[in-house]
Amino acid sequence: MTDPLELAAIDSLFTEEERDIRDTVRKFAAEQIRPHIAEWFAAGELPARELARECGKLGLLGMHLEGYGCAGTGAVAYGLACFELESADSGVRSLVSVQGSLAMYAIRTFGSEEQRQRWLPAMAAGEAIGCFGLTEPDAGSDPGAMRTSARRDGGDWILNGEKMWITNAAIADVAVVWARTDEGIRGFVVPMDTPGVSTLPVGHKLSLRASVTSALVLQDVRLPGDAIMPEAIGLRAPLKCLGEARLGIVFGSLGAGYDCLRAAIDYAGSREAFGKPISGFQLTQEKLTEMTRGLVNGMLLAVHVGRLREAGKATPAQVSLAKLNNCETAISIARTARTILGANGVTLEYPVLRHANNLEAVITYEGTSEVHKLVVGQALTGQAAFR
């Protein structure tokens, strides 16, 4: 039997170093995540700090950033790491991508040298955890409508507001928080032990259960003047961070789809009905073929956009198109794989419905499918249809 991705010789698109990174992360996932992930998902918990330290040892945190203890790999290598992590579970990939592509990227790109020196080496090692406070209860797809405010008080800043759906917040040491000021939207580096900072867990989740998700509450939080990130000016700054994180999702979502497809192929080969394996039936083979077609097309698109990112040529519309396509492809694969597994597909003995549930969140965060369609639509027509 042929691996689905090898029908298009996908491995030939990667360098030896990229394949080595992928294989290292695959081994890490096989040994430290897969044996426990169903239990973590069922319990709604994740040993995030322990996993972060292990990821730090492997150089996965902020791996595509330069300096400050970061590995400085290319975009495709980072994408392959996300692919392997998310093939185990989306929650684990979220831990890594929020740390590296949102919190660390923001500090690296917009922060002061003092902020970089204080936080980035510890974050790269997994000894400090970061979160990214942009989304609010009433400001999701329209972050410009945020209500969190920051006002000057002498040489200090006073922050008030609430952020919602913040990955890593309850275990974080530092938060990158975006707030409205008299100068417009600005970004702040907020140590989580600052008086007035608190978190509230988001309970009863049916998606990303193996992930730490919280509300981040800021009540008269007093920060020194140098807590502001000097280059984080205007809404373009947090949106640039989101664009950085989306590339990990472009690859990662396909990892979830790939795991579902492999599970369906294995199950179909061993499950018998009417006297033979169900993999020998035409309708089953049609499903497997369609899932493979979507996976291969999505992977080719992911690698292409990754190479464009490495060359400094990827546009926001291209990344939006890839995120839209690959998330929709992955969740379609997960749902189709579930039909092949029948009733067994709804249990945690197999990964497909866990992945499908997770992907319901993945198609929403870092830009919903609807928002990405509008980004692509604007590129095609020259007309903004957001309002």
UniProtKB/TrEMBL annotation:
Q: Would the keyword Flavoprotein turn up in this protein's UniProt record?
A: yes
Q: Which UniProt keywords apply?
A: FAD, Flavoprotein, Oxidoreductase, Transit peptide
Q: Which PROSITE patterns match?
A: ACYL_COA_DH_1 (PS00072)
Q: Could you provide one GO biological process annotation from this protein's UniProt record?
A: fatty acid beta-oxidation using acyl-CoA dehydrogenase
Q: Which family does it belong to?
A: Belongs to the acyl-CoA dehydrogenase family.
Species of the source: Micromonospora polyrhachis
The name on file for this protein is: glutaryl-CoA dehydrogenase (ETF)
Q: Does the keyword Oxidoreductase apply?
A: yes
**Which residues are in the Acyl-CoA dehydrogenase/oxidase C-terminal domain?**
234-380
- Acyl-CoA oxidase/dehydrogenase middle domain residues: 131-221
Q: Which reaction does it catalyse?
A: glutaryl-CoA + oxidized [electron-transfer flavoprotein] + 2 H(+) = (2E)-butenoyl-CoA + reduced [electron-transfer flavoprotein] + CO2
